[in-house]
Design a protein that fits this description.
With about 240 residues, this protein is of the alpha+beta class. Helices cover about 25% and strands about 15% of the residues. The chain has six helices and ten strands. The strands form three sheets. The chain has a five-stranded mixed sheet with strand order 2-1-5-3-4, sandwiched between helices. Strand 1 and strand 2 form a beta hairpin. The radius of gyration is 19 Å and the shape is globular. Bound molecules: iron/sulfur cluster (SF4) (2 copies) and FE2/S2 (inorganic) cluster. The site of one iron/sulfur cluster has 13 residues, from helix 4 and helix 5.
């Protein structure tokens, strides 16, 4: 069956898309950068963080590009002062919600949240910091989780479930009480489902999930495995 081809415009540029592609996929194919945080190519998009909001002509609300399908004749704008302000506010709220103290973080300078802050021009936070007292679980022999750095993007949950097939991670609680948990909220080190593959550690955009034995600024995330594994899965008969 032949694929249905659509035409639309993004930032004034006429582009084509295969029916079913998202605005984000089409934008990236055409070299148009839209900031993202919860999205990661190879994992199911969930539209959780709202960093990728765009404007679509004729639609009053902003739409998340990672979960909105491209449509025939759509006119999409990805960079406006309103979008810039929304994105900056989202990053500020994430910084204020937990304890992102970059100078002492193992992921300093290798952190997607920090990169986003630079990108949206965030030089201070305009809301009060919450300073929650959250825990660190270092019971796993190789890895640790510091809940103070978590932005609840869910990448760990999805990679562990969709790629590794272990489903060790999940979410517990709602609103400001929400946390990622291993198994039924048991210490990571006592998990009977974790295979110690390390995939969750490397897709985590911040210094929440890290390898033990790293000093501040040493923890580099390696994402290269994900496109490779995804390709191999798609190639399976
Ligand atoms: S190390 Fe692998 S199996 Fe264990 S929680 Fe992380 S992704 Fe899941
Ligand atoms: S632990 Fe990392 S990957 Fe998992 S939800 Fe938190 S920030 Fe995202
Ligand atoms: S990247 Fe689209 S909502 Fe998070």
């Amino acid at each position: 069956m032949s694929e249905s081809i659509l035409t639309l415009s993004i930032d004034g540029k006429d582009v084509s898309a295969v029916a079913g592609q998202t605005i984000l996929e089409v934008a990236r194919e055409n070299g148009i950068a839209i900031p993202t945080l919860c999205y990661l190519q190879g994992l199911t998009p969930v539209g959780a963080c709202r960093m990728c909001l765009v404007e679509v002509k004729g639609v009053p609300k902003l739409l998340p590009a990672c979960v909105t399908r491209a449509a025939e004749g759509m006119e999409v704008t990805t960079q406006t002062p309103r979008l810039q302000e929304y994105r900056r506010t989202i990053v500020e709220l994430l910084f204020a919600e937990r304890n992102h103290v970059c100078a002492v973080c193992v992921s300093n300078n290798h952190c997607e949240l920090q990169d986003l802050a630079r990108r949206v021009g965030m030089n201070h936070v305009r809301v009060p910091y919450r300073y929650p007292r959250l825990g660190v679980d270092a019971t796993h022999p190789r890895f640790a989780v510091d809940h103070n750095r978590c932005v609840l993007c869910g990448r760990c949950v999805r990679v562990c479930d969709e790629i590794e097939g272990a489903h060790t991670w999940d979410f517990m609680g709602r609103g400001i009480e929400c946390r990622v948990i291993t198994d039924m909220n048991q210490p990571w080190g006592s998990s009977e489902t974790c295979t110690s593959c390390g995939k969750c550690v490397h897709v985590c955009p911040t210094g929440t999930l890290t390898e033990k034995g790293r000093a501040a600024a040493e923890m580099k995330k390696r994402l290269q495995f994900l496109p490779y594994l995804t390709l191999m899965r798609e190639a399976r008969p």
